[in-house]
Design a protein that fits this description.
Layout (H helix, E strand, L loop, with lengths): L1 E4 L5 E5 L7 E8 L4 E8 L19 E8 L2
Antiparallel strand pairs: 1-2, 3-4, 4-5
Length: about 70
């Protein structure tokens, strides 16, 4: 899951991302505009996809890069 907190530690935004198999985040990045990127590996055949470079699970593990935007 991804959660954004304010300066007082209160949650502002939270979202889940994953599929039916092993999903691991290897890193993340964000900016002041509210863009969040996470990347990692997955063995999930049901990972949510939008405009993917590879539209079908390749077997073993695949890498992913996903973006979120907080208002």
């Amino acid at each position: 899951f991804i959660t954004i907190f304010d300066t007082l530690g209160q949650p502002l935004f939270s979202s889940c991302y994953g599929g039916d198999g092993y999903d691991a985040v290897d890193g993340s990045a964000s900016n002041r505009a509210g863009d969040i990127r996470i990347f990692g590996v997955t063995s999930s055949e049901t990972l949510p996809l939008a405009a993917p470079w590879q539209s079908a699970f390749g077997g073993g593990t695949d890498q992913f890069l996903v973006g979120f935007r907080y208002p």
